[in-house]
Every structure is written in C-alpha cells, then in structure tokens.
Amino acid sequence: MRVNLTVNGRPQQADDVWEGESLLYVLRERLGLPGSKNACEQGECGSCTVRLDGVPVCACLVAAGQVEGREVVTVEGLADYARQREQHGHGGHCATGACAAPGTSLQDARGWSATGTDSQTGEGTALAPVQQAFIDAGAVQCGFCTPGLLVAADEMLERNPSPSDEDIREALAGNLCRCTGYEKILDAVRLAAARQERQGEAV
Amino acid sequence: MPNPTGNPATPTPAGTPTQVTQGSRTRGGIGESTLRPDGTLKVTGEFAYSSDMWHEDMLWGQILRSTTAHAEIVSIDVSEALAQAGVYAVLTHDDLPTDVTKYGLEYQDTPVLADGVVRHHGEPVALVAADHPETARRAAARIRVEYRELPVVTDETSALADGAPILHPHRDDHHAGHVAHPNIVHRQPVVRGDAAEAARRADVVVTGEYVFGMQDQAFLGPESGLAVPAEDGGVDLYVATQWLHSDLRQIAPVLGLPEDKVRMTLSGVGGAFGGREDLSMQIHACLLALRTGKPVKIVYNRFESFFGHVHRHPARLRYEHGATRDGRLTHISCRIVLDGGAYASASPAVVGNAASLAVGPYAVEDVDIEAVALYTNNPPCGAMRGFGAVQACFAYEAQMDKLAKALAMDPVELRQMNAMEQGTLMPTGQRVDSPAPVAELLRRVKARPLPPERQWESTAGADVRALPGGLSNTTHGEGVVRGVGYAVGIKNVGFSEGFDDYSTARVRMEVVGGQAVATVHTAMAEVGQGGITVHAQIARTELGVTQVVINPADTRVGSAGSTSASRQTYVTGGAVKNSCELVREKVLAIGRRRFGTHHPAWATAELLLEGGKVVTDGGEVLADLAEVLADEAVEIEAEWRHRPTQAFDLVTGQGDGHVQYSFAAHRAVVEVDTELGLVKVVELACAQDVGKALNPLSVLGQIQGGTTQGLGMAVMEEIVVDPKTAKVRNPSFTDYLIPTILDTPTIPVDILELADDHAPYGLRGIGEAPTLSSTPAVLAAIRNATGLDLTRTPVRPEHLTGTP
C-alpha cells in the first residue's frame, strides 16, 4: 500500500508498504530516518518515541497505515520543531502542519555529517534546547535511548515548563536507559527547564 | 567521504562511521569534563548504529534457533523455505565452507550452526537471507527441523551425576586435563594458610548459602551489523562489538579467508556491558554475504537478543566466616559454583576472578576457596560488568553483615576493622601495591546525611511516586518500613592471569589550515563509555593541540584489546599517551633540526608542547608547532603494555594474577511495603577511588550507571530458566525488568583520587566496581528493614511476604 504522511514538516510518501509494517519501520527503512531506535519492538523501552499529531507514541506500536494523512515529528526534526515553537510561543507547535515552512528535507537528513567546523559539542549545529542540555549534562553515553528520551522530554517541557523531579521521572518512566543510571538525564531536563525559564524571563 | 574499504568497486554503505573531530573552547586536556565528540551526532539522531547501516541492494539475514534445550537433530528440511519468493539463501551446518565450524573466546567449542545436536534453547540452527526482514522471518519458520529430545543438565547435581550426559565429550581445551569431570569447564582453588586450623581460634563462625540469579546485560542496541562482499573475495563487516581483533581471529578461519580479507569497522554501539565480547551475528552475516554475493544486514529483535548473547553466570555460593570476639577475621572458606551454560565463553576467566576475589577487600590470612564453572544445558553465560567478582561480593557482604550481627558489632565497623589497605596480601599471595582506601570509602558513605524520613509526605498528601509500588497506588505509607545497608567490593582492572593485555595506538600530527592537529586511530570499541572523549583529552595534554581527530575504529590498526574489565582508559589510554610521547619526541627532533640554533633551550630535554607551541618547562615559547612541523607529518603506531601478570597456580591459586584493583562502597536506603513485598530504593550513595578522574563527568556517569545495574540485580532483573526444560521463560522487556527512571533513586557520588603510581596519570579503571557493592548494599538495607535473611538475589515480592 501507499502511505502519505508529514514527517518533520515535509510531506512524504512511502510505497510498497506491507500491511504489517510499523511506523518505525517506515521511518527507518523507507524514509531514510533511522534516528528513531528499535530496541524492543513492543512498546516497553521508548527508544522509538516520536510525536504523532503532537502526542508522544512508540513508533513500533503504530501500524504504518494508521499514520495516513497525519503529522510525525522525529528526533531528526526536533531542533526545527523547537525553533518554531519558540517563534510561535509555548504550545504553538506544528501538529497541524500550519507552520511547516522550512522543515528538514529528506535530503538534508540523509546528508548530515560531521564537518570540520562542527566541534560535535553543539557549536555550529542548530539544536533544540533539550538536545543541547543532554550534551552539556553528560546525559548521553551509548546514546541509543537518547532520541526517544529527547522527544519525550521535549514534549513534557512543552506541557510543563517547570517540572518537579517527580514530574520528570513520571514523564520519562516509559524510556529505558541502561548506561547512565538516569541521574544525568534528570540533570539535563532540569537544565533545559532552567534555560527555558531564563530565556522566558529575558523576553 | 573516503572509501573505507580501499576498494573502489565497493560503494560505501550508508551509516559507515565517519571521523569525529573535536575542537575545544578551553584547553580540553585530562582532568576536565570535556564533552563527548559524538554528542551532537547522538542527540540529532544522526549517529549511525550498527542497526542503522544500509546498503543498496542489501538482503536481510534471519537466524533459525532451536526451540529446545538439548536434542539431537534428526533432520533439517530447508526446501520449503528456499522456495519462498524473495529468499536468496538458506544455510545449515552442512553448508559451512571449511573444517573450522566452531568458535569461542577461550575454547573453540561453539558451533557456528548446530552440528547434529543443540545444547541450549535458542542455539542457531539455520540461516536465511531474503529481500525483506519479514520474508526472511517467515522463510525461517518454514524450515522443518526434527529434534530427538535428550535429557537436560541444569545444575551441579545433574551435571556431575553418574551417567550424566556429557555436553562436550571430546574436549581438547587447556583445562580439560585438570578438571575432575568433563562437565566442569574450569576449577580454581585458592588456598592460603590453614583455614581449618584457623577456625579453631574463631569465637564466632557464621555460614551461609547464597543464590545469585541470571542477569542480562540488556544493552539497548540489539546485536546487528552489515556484511558487504568485496571483489577480492573478502568481506567488509560493519558491526557493534567490544573487541574487533578478537572477532576477526574467530571469524576468518570459519570463512576460510586470511585475516586481511576480513576488514572490520566498528559501527555505532548501543551499549555492551560484556554482552558483545562473544560473537553473535558476525559469522552468520559474512556467510550469507559471501554465499549470495550481496550485502547482508542482520538485526536481532529484543526476543532474539535474549538468546543472542551470553548472560551473567548465575551462582550458588557457600561461605564460612570466622572471627575472634573482638571482630578480627580468623578465616574464610567458600565454594562458588557458577553455571556456565552450554558453551565455555569466558567461563574460565570468570572462575579465576571469582576465586581470586572471593573474600572481598578484607585482610584475612587463612582462606580455603574453590570456584568452578559447569557446562549445563542452560543459556551460555560469560562476561558481564563485574565478571565473577559480582556474585562473590553479594555473598561475602551478606556474610559480613551476618558476622556483625553474631558479634553484636556495627557492620561498618566490622568491615573497617578488617579492611585491606595498601600492602595487604591477597589470598593469591599478591601484594596490593597501590592505595586501597576501603575503610575510608565506607566512612564516606556512612558519614553522608540520611535522606529525610517519610519523604513521600507533602502538604497535598502522600506522593505515591515516592513510595513502594509507585503509581500503582498500593500504599500511602501504611506498612512501609525503612532500612539502611552497606557494602564494599573489590574488582580487578584489566585482563589477568598472564594474558598479554596490550593495546595499540596510531597518532599522527600535522598542520591543517595553519594549525597543528592530532589524529588518533585505535581499534578501541567505543560502546558509550566515553573512551574517544578521553583519547582526545590525552592527545591535547600530551601534544598541546586544540583540534583532535578521532578516526573510526577498525582492523587497519593494531588490536586495542577488549572494551572490558574496566581496562580501556588504562590500556588504550596508556597506548595513546605512549604514542603521543613518541610523536612529541619526533616533533621536538624536527624542531631542534630546524630551530636548534635559534635558542639554547632547544638543547635541554625539558621541552613541552602546550597551546600549539613548543615551550620550556619555565613557560618560554620557543616556536609555534605549525612552524616546527611545516609540511611534515609525524606518525607513530605503537603497542603498549601494562605490567605483566602471572597465571594462578592450579592447585594453590597463588600468583600475581591481577594488574590493578578497584574499590567502591555503597550505602542503600530502602523503604519496603512489608504487606505487598514491594521495595523502593530511596537513595544509593557511592564512594569510589578512581585514582585520577580523566573526565569527571564521565566518571560520574560510569559510577551511576554501574550502580543502577547493581540495583536492578537486587530487586528485579533475572532471566528465568525452567528447571525442568532449561528453556528461557522471559525473553522480553515485558518480563525481564530493568530499572526505569522511577525505580532509580538519587545516586550521590563521592570520588576519591588516590594515584596508582603504576598506571598512566595514576588512573584506576572504574567501570565495574560500582556494579559490585550496589546489589549487596540494597539487600542489606532490605534485610535491615524486614529482619529477613534473604539469601538470594534478585529479591522478589514473595520472598518478603513469605507467599509460596
């Protein structure tokens, strides 16, 4: 079957999709967006968390056919998504597709690679605040859980800009991490919230 | 992008690792918390893991695994599978290209594909390559295998019984000659003094039998990789592993290829923790690629991953501790039985560790230790973070608490009184010749203020998220009791028992864009621990550069050894430091040649490279590095070794077997819902001596991560194997639980830096020690809260409620 969907603000079309394929398979194997990770394929680990019409879901549990005509945001589009939210104020996200303007083209997503000027510590690359906070706080080790955690954490901060530790733990309870012991992930989310607050005050 | 195969006819697959480059706003040398050079790639989703590899025209490989634990294979019929549209190849043992059909880390006892018999549930039997993963899965399901069931060996009794099935009847490994029974993989006694005689001096003797469950590494990135056939008849393999050259040594003979025709590149690795020491899909993908002439990708799903790698050895441990009335240990005797499962994997080395570290970080002169690993039909067990020391620590720390209780002493005081220190003799006779601050680590975790009581109470009522049972809303504090427990452990660093444990580093220095740049190339597997961060820091410190390029790890450079045994910062870090020093000498020689006449200081030996310049030890600038190098490039590839170790004597266990020791202590605070048997760990504080923190932020990450894996082992993680059928009952994240962010408490960490003068920068390997003491500390806290004995881990609710 053919599936039409919007991914990170760009209309996409996937052909020859088998009925049993998941959204995760379509993203990773058909649309060239392997950022969302497959660690359990049964909705237990959260590594494939994406936003479907704004709602965080495990892409492995969404059948490809279910996303027909809908809007998906993956880790590859998180920086753009956050920037547009910033421009449109809190809650003004692009789930409707109304502000899909630049987006991340498939070509761009495929073509990303390290360059000499990119220090790999965030300079030179447009990152969402929560992405930068994960780097700065040391919340990334092997990084396999990171894409899903980033999408989930970003969504929580959108809803709840000043979360308590218990709020953070509750929001991220569906995302397994085996490397960090979660302490630095908590630090990263606290840091992103604090920076967001500071920026809000400055405006 | 340069073609990594060097073969212009082979297009480079998508997801091929690229160099990562790191500049720095600050100096970025050792001791600073510089950020990961792969951080941006990882947070943008761009970092290519082995499961992200993609090649035009690639096929998907699928493995058919045994559905039973021990059986003769009567017949295999692949015809129906082969007839499926989209299927390119189906392979069984009969299709293997050479006489070398087995592999293994220590003994070559593991069949690439089952040879007439399967010895554990989930053993690979046949391979399929097809154009869609689902096609491959369905085709594999159509392979008809007829099994004739054989009796299973599941524990020591059944393994050593008269007439027990012998799992490997034709052993020719180096331990076969000295074990009492062919189902014993290896046995290592460690005997020192006279434990029986010393027992007469004991005023108090405590004994205990302990059971340690089977833990899974549960790294998040499943086994995966891509094999690309090359025009020269060889193969390019992109894979997630812990040791490229060890894989290569095992893969090439099975394929019938010389090692230089199996070119391996490390893909992005989604965690390891020991579970990638053994081969998984490597040979299978290569076989399918060479058979079909097409690139073949294999990606395990989580179910298969539970069968696709070895686990931590489950163990039964029997201990006897004696002490005088004032609390001095008189003797320790123990017997540790490790279940190695169907194949040897790393079992012999795990036995060596369990035996040599069996009494823990305590000074005791009279010991009688025996550790064995068995062959059974249970899942194969091998390396996991802590490697034999973990099981022992769980038992000896339970014993120390039991002894303290019998002596009516404070458990921390008892430990401190018997704590080893620098100069103490290990049971193996090895003198501990660097700091061993065991008593101090315990003091530090104990001195920390306790978290407030009834921390779930708030003005709005009970926050159930802070209570046992969490959002299940099972209690608002009724029936909840608190307990506090302590533990300390000792772990060896590096490969032991005389192993030639070297690493190799290639370091290049040249001018790029008017600036001196260092390039570091090693085969070290970056599995998330941050080794590449540290390599860049070492290069900056030693060579005075800002910009460091880290080349992808591959087999075009010499072996780095394994990312195991807390060894990479020590050994490959040592190799990078050593090669940098050799490069520096060459750079200075060039400088003397070019500028020696300009300034008398060039003649002195005390020159340094700092801030892109050659400076005297007094800080005077002699030349810019870019001017010294001009258009010359300096490159060195050199091997580096730590101090040699010795094998343990097979009868007495004596020998200087270990390179370095590493120590951590924990204090656990738990709250237990005694009615439902639910445990909430409230805080898990750790103190660890790290020698020198090359990257303090990464050190914290290692300690907190290791602590959390120990917590999982205490209260939730266990692969459950049916004792009658030896089949795995819970191969999924639904049924095998690892700690979530809600299960994990705050983990305050106290870092001590007491230099080990034998190690580069005085550092101590850190990754494993925190995994040891975490589990027994939590168990001690639960015992403290409930008054129960709790001799097995993980603790399940029924152990606390007494429910049958």
TrEMBL record, chain A:
The keyword tRNA-binding does not apply. Residues 1-78 form the 2Fe-2S ferredoxin-type domain. The keyword Acetylation does not apply. InterPro entries: 2Fe-2S-bd, 2Fe-2S-bd_dom_sf, 2Fe-2S_ferredoxin-like_sf, 2Fe-2S_ferredoxin-type, 2Fe2S_fd_BS, Beta-grasp_dom_sf, Diverse_Oxidoreductases. Keywords: 2Fe-2S, Iron, Iron-sulfur, Metal-binding, Oxidoreductase. This is (2Fe-2S)-binding protein. It comes from Streptomyces lichenis.
UniProtKB/TrEMBL annotation, chain B:
Keywords: Oxidoreductase. It comes from the Bacteria. Its EC number is 1.17.1.4. Transmembrane segments: none annotated. The keyword Nucleus does not apply. The keyword Acetylation does not apply. Pfam families: Ald_Xan_dh_C, MoCoBD_1, MoCoBD_2. Residues 1-38 are annotated as: Disordered. This is Xanthine dehydrogenase subunit D. It comes from Streptomyces lichenis. The gene is pucD.
